[in-house]
Design a protein that fits this description.
Distance between the termini: 27 Å
Strand content: 15-25%
Radius of gyration: 22 Å
């Protein structure tokens, strides 16, 4: 669970109010409850204070207070991380850091870390430019980037961090540092996949790609061992322009699902082809031929269309696990369907993403995201409503993960669940882990940023 020590008492709150120019919110303030709301439901962390900084100087002041008092500090962007809150501590709400400068001539952008993926995508689209930024428009720009960034353009253009040119970051000593390949390159390496363990990223500079239109949308088909394994094989062999996210679950009542198929397993895939025209149709044709579509909503659309509107009041309670593998064969597909059939959750789902292509072309040691050699990422989720059933649902995803995993355990740090004990280690191979610990010792020796997906500093 998130850090629950070092409560922020009235002296800390008074100091924040005296030193910070932005809003300092405490329980009872009109905006406090909303500021403490994150995407996931069912989490019990309740901070003592939320700070919405009025610029980078405020960020540095908050970090200094946390360092000098030992109060737990969590950083919140879009609120999709289970580590965006800390019980009794300080939450630094970065949603107020929203500056954006796009240079169409050089195809680069400086962006505030508090912007969302959807906001950035809409702004870049006005110039015919794009950046791969996950699969959800409401996710925060800072968080999706520093964990790696696996989204709808990953097979053609790689991870988000593969387009990161520089960043500005407030480290544990309260200093604002500009990092890039020439300036403090070790820290720059670490924040490309190492998450929020090294400071608070305030601005990021990206190189963008020219892309205005995609062919994308939902493709819904029956889920059988043959369609699941066949879909994965097609996704691995597809042109790099085509990225897909396949979700397998028992169909709830939906307008496009016939009554006789409700409760039966389906594949609901989000398909995105980075381009348009005949090449896109050729790439999509084998997927449509795999099994007669229950629904085919794929169409030519502006790139921002990949991020549909979201319900701000939706806060699912979920147990989840993440893993990497290299194949999904018939036996794996059968296992997936059997486990979903045996689940007791309100909804049990398996998500499969094929991420080979441009992401795999980058050397494994070039960034702290080191799973470049793994073709497939799988998320297992049990969505439920009864908190008394929490342990059972986590047991289901844990046992499912063990049964499905192949080879050495590996996972994506941006999908680390809130029961993280021991699992952060799976996000990094040995060499990457030790290098991250050494960099942590240099920039955060007292572990100020311990609430995040914590990498402990190396022993002195």
């Amino acid at each position: 669970m998130a850090e629950k020590t070092n409560p922020a008492g009235e002296p800390v709150i008074a100091r924040l109010r005296a030193e910070v120019g932005g809003a300092v919110l405490v329980p009872g303030d009109p905006d406090f409850d909303k500021a403490c709301t994150i995407y996931l439901g069912g989490l019990d962390e309740r901070p003592a204070v939320v700070v919405r900084p009025d610029g980078v100087a405020d960020v540095a002041r908050v970090v200094a207070v946390a360092r000098e008092t030992g109060v737990a500090l969590a950083v919140k962007g879009g609120g999709h991380s289970p580590f965006a809150l800390c019980d009794g501590g300080i939450v630094l709400d970065m949603s107020t850091i929203r500056d954006l400068e796009i240079d169409p001539e050089t195809r680069t952008a400086w962006a505030g870390a508090g912007l969302t993926a959807g906001e950035f995508t809409n702004a870049a689209h006005e110039h015919g430019l794009a950046l791969g930024l996950g699969d959800t428009g409401s996710v925060g720009l800072g968080g999706i980037t520093i964990g790696g960034g696996i989204g709808y353009l990953v097979r053609k253009y790689g991870l988000t961090i593969d387009h990161l040119l520089a960043a500005e970051i407030v480290t544990a000593d309260g200093e604002l540092r500009r990092v890039d390949a020439e300036n403090e390159p070790d820290l720059f390496w670490a924040i490309r996949g190492g998450g929020g363990n090294f400071g608070v990223v305030t601005r990021l500079r990206y190189n963008l790609v020219e892309l205005r239109t995609v062919v994308g949308g939902l493709l819904v088909q029956k889920a059988t061992p043959e369609t699941i394994s066949g879909f994965v094989k097609l996704a691995q062999e597809a042109p790099a322009e085509l990225t897909s996210i396949m979700n397998i679950f028992n169909a709830p009542p939906m307008p496009f699902v016939p009554d006789e198929l409700v409760g039966t397993p389906i594949i609901m895939s989000m398909m995105v082809y980075a381009g348009e025209g005949e090449a896109a149709e050729r790439a999509l044709a084998p997927f449509r031929e795999l099994d007669a579509p229950i629904a085919d909503m794929i169409e030519t659309m502006p790139l921002p269309g990949i991020y549909p509107p979201e319900d701000e009041d939706e806060h699912p309670i979920a147990a989840s696990r993440n893993l990497f593998t290299d194949t999904v064969d018939l036996d794996d597909a059968t296992l997936i369907l059997d486990r979903i059939a045996a689940a007791t959750a309100d909804m049990a789902a398996t998500q499969i993403r094929v991420i080979n292509g441009a992401a795999s072309a980058v050397p494994a040691d070039a960034t702290a995201y080191a799973h470049r050699d793994r073709d497939i990422m799988i998320n297992l989720a049990a969505i439920y409503s009864d908190l008394a059933d929490t342990d059972n649902q986590h047991r289901w995803v844990d046992e499912f993960t063990t049964a499905l995993a192949k080879g050495k355990p590996a996972m994506y740090v941006n999908f680390l669940d809130n029961r993280r004990e021991g699992r952060i280690r799976e996000a990094y191979p040995d060499g990457t882990w030790e290098r991250l610990r050494a960099i942590k010792r240099t920039y955060d020796p007292t572990n100020v940023f311990r609430v995040n997906n914590n990498i402990p500093p190396a022993d002195a």
